[in-house]
Amino acid sequence: MAADDSRQDPIGGNGPDDARIASLDARLQAATAAEKARTTPAQRAPDKGYRQGSRVLAELIGGPVGGALLGWLIDRLFGTGHWGLLVGMFLGIIVAFRNIIKISGERPE
pTM here? Predict the structure, then answer.
């Protein structure tokens, strides 16, 4: 090889104090830290589709349970048998489905 080949470093240019290696090491550490921060699950917010699914599940559970609880309280206060429980649960299901339809109309992006 030719001695004036610019791609070759002179002997002794690759020591531990070489500025290019130090710069490369610093950039590598910064890239590693940025990738670790980007892929850490605790720091990432859940996707909008996941949040919508959680809201739908909460509506499916909360609507009928809340309606049944209010109906049961009405039954206990007024002594109406189990009609308040049935009507409250039915109304809770209707409200839950109405809210689910509203949630499903949103764009998940």
Answer: 0.57
